[in-house]
C-alpha cells in the first residue's frame, strides 16, 4: 500500500513524536509513505472563518499535490490528524459540489502548474487501519498483545461529525473504529462519557479556563472508569489533554496523571516496538511513569528508563 502522506502542521511541530511514530510503524504495516512536503496547513476551520476561498485554495493545493503522487502510483491520500480530516473533508465537499467554484479555486493553483480534480480519496490513518489494512490483518501482526491495558478512546470532534459528510453509518461505523483497533491490538476498551466530545482546544485562546475544564472532565471521567491511558487520532486533542495536563489538573483541582497516546504509538507497542522508538518519552505525562508496563504490555522490552 502506497499513500500520498499529509502529516499536517502539529505533528511536525508540537507533537513530533506523532510524525516519528507513523514513520516507524508504517513499514511494519506495509504502508509506504510519500510525504507531501510542499503541502500547507489545512486551516483547521479557522482560516475559512475569514476567507473560505483562501482556505479551500490551500486545501485544493494539497489535494492536487496528492493527486500528482497518485498519478505516479500512490493509492490514495492519508492524513494523521482528525482535525485535518474534518476540515479537508468539508473543503472537498464544496469543491466537488460545484465545477464553477472548483474552476475558480483552481485559478489560484495555475501558477504552480497544479489543478485539483474531483474525487480524491483522503483517509485518516485510523480509517486506513480498518478499511484498507483490515482488522484481521492488523490482529495477525500483533506480537505483543496489549493484555490488561485498559484504553479509553478519544476521537475529538472533527472525525465523528457531521456523520453524513464523514460517511459514518451502520455499514461504515467510523465512529467505533478506535474501539475496534484497541480490541484488535489485544487491549481492553474503556467506555466513558467524553470519548466523542470536544477536548476544548478550539476555544483555548478565547476561553482558556473553560477549555481546561473540558479537558479535565474527560480525563477525570476516563480515570474514574479505570483507564490506564487514552489514545487519540488528533494531535490537537493531544495538546490539550497531554501538554496542558499539568495546568488542567490545577484548574479542576485533581491530580489526573493520565497518559495520552497517539494512535500509531499504541499500534507500535502491540507490534513489538520499544517505547523509545515511538517517542513515548516526549509526552508531558510519560506513559512509562504511570502505567505498570510489566503487567500491562511491555514487560519484555527491557529498560524503560531510556524511553
UniProtKB/TrEMBL annotation:
Keyword Oxidoreductase applies: yes
Pfam family of the protein (one): CCG
Entry keywords, A to Z: Oxidoreductase
Keyword Oxidoreductase among UniProt keywords: yes
Residues of the Cysteine-rich domain: 3-86, 154-242
Protein name (Swiss-Prot/TrEMBL): CoB--CoM heterodisulfide reductase iron-sulfur subunit B family protein
Organism: Patulibacter brassicae
